[in-house]
């Protein structure tokens, strides 16, 4: 059975975006951008992969991405109907109409659909892109959490997990630090 990884950037106080979905305050650097392109290139949107010259690189980690509508909406606002064309894209929404035949928009139960995806025979894993409400709903299905922890306090915004009080343990596997002050922490279910 393949695994699902929640790969997400957060502030020091645990927000994945500002109150109005802002993410432009996360500091980047050349070193950190290289890391994202080489170690997590599959998780970059297709247009970013193209701009970085890694769009022809075969997927190493993921072949499927799942996300909520709010994570998908910024691409739609720009007229991009399939922001992750190099991955099979599944968007959970009860109201959105499909805009691209290569994007699965579903009102299905996210837990049941993710279990189906994880049960598929594939050498690649499933990438959970967000948002926080979907991550909270799928918490029991998340096998690995990779947090890009940025040296910023936002004060408010969209939390990484929206769920009731439910302490869930993960084991730290790896830490990498970068010149922009970001630490990437990789955790797995014990």
TrEMBL record:
Which Gene3D superfamilies has this protein been placed in? Dihydrofolate Reductase, subunit A (3.40.430.10)
InterPro entries for this protein? DHFR-like_dom_sf (IPR024072), Riboflavin_Biosynth_HTPR (IPR050765)
Q: What is this protein called?
A: Dihydrofolate reductase family protein
């Amino acid at each position: 059975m393949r695994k699902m990884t929640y790969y997400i950037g957060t502030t020091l106080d645990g927000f994945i975006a500002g109150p109005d979905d802002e993410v432009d305050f996360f500091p980047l650097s050349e070193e950190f951008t290289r890391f994202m392109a080489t170690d997590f290139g599959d998780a970059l949107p297709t247009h970013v992969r193209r701009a970085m010259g890694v769009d022809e690189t075969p997927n190493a980690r993921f072949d499927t991405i799942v996300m909520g509508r709010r994570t998908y909406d910024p691409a739609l606002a720009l007229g991009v109907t399939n922001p992750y064309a190099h991955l099979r894209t599944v968007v959970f929404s009860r109201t959105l109409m499909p805009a691209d035949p290569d994007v699965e928009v579903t009102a299905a139960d996210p837990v049941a659909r993710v279990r189906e995806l994880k049960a598929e025979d594939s050498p690649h894993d499933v990438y959970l892109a967000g948002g926080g409400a979907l991550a909270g709903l799928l918490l029991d299905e998340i096998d690995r959490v990779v947090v890009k922890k940025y040296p910023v306090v936002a004060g408010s915004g969209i939390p990484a997990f929206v769920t009731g009080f439910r302490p869930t343990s993960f084991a730290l596997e790896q830490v990498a630090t970068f010149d922009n002050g970001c630490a990437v922490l990789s955790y797995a279910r014990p």
